[in-house]
Amino acid sequence: MNDLVNPSLDLTGVEINYYFICKTKLWLFSNHVQMEDESELVKLGKLTHKESFEREEKEVNIGPIKFDYIRRRNKLEIHEVKKSKKMYESHLYQLLYYLYYLKQLGIEASGVLKYPRLREEKKVELTREKENEIKSLIQEVKDVLNRDSFPKPEWKEICKKCAYREFCFS
To answer: What is the rounded CA–CA span in Å between residue 87 and residue 21?
Structure first.
């Protein structure tokens, strides 16, 4: 990781995303219990990403974060491609974390959430209020990750399609 970045910013965007979806999934994923390679929904999401915006420079890595793609306009634009808006909050905070991370490097950027199958996009800016939320969120995610064991699974509607379902509820 870049020496200029605060070492507390070692989270990935996926970890931020999973915090909103399921804390059990977050802990398992971050502790290398990765079951998503077999998930048809994950494969569909990756296909959506691959087939969308083919001319763009994709999967740009900076430290522990990976953007779907970037564009340079008046300022840097970070784009995240998602297949559905069902998890909008998790998508939003993943992108806000990326913007916050870049700001810590001295890079001003804006973000765009893209939903190509819906033909929709949402512009995202890191406001002072959202920046404060991200600071708190980072600590909350780290609190989950620092547990000795995974949080007890709580059944949610999304569990029906989750790659971790068998692990959590068998």
So the answer is: 7
Beta-carbon contacts of 35 under 8 Å, excluding residues fewer than 6 positions away, are 28, 163, 164, 167
Structure tokens at 37: 């390679």
Burial of 28 from C-beta contacts in 10 A (0-12 / 13-18 / 19+): buried
How far is CA 30 from its chain centroid? 13
pLDDT at 5: 59
- The total of other beta-carbon atoms located within 10 Å of residue 120's CB is 11
What is the total residue count of the chain? Answer: 170
Mean pLDDT of 149-166: 92
Q: What is the mean pLDDT of the chain?
A: 86
Phi then psi for 141, rounded to 5 degrees?
-65, -45
Question: Phi and psi (nearest 5°) for 97?
Answer: -60, -45
**CA dihedral sign, ordered 64, 67, 73, 75:** negative
For the whole prediction, is pTM greater than 0.70?
yes
The answer to whether residue 115 scores a pLDDT higher than 90 is yes
DSSP string, 127-142: -HHHHHHHHHHHHHHH
147 and 112 in contact (C-beta within 8 Å)? no
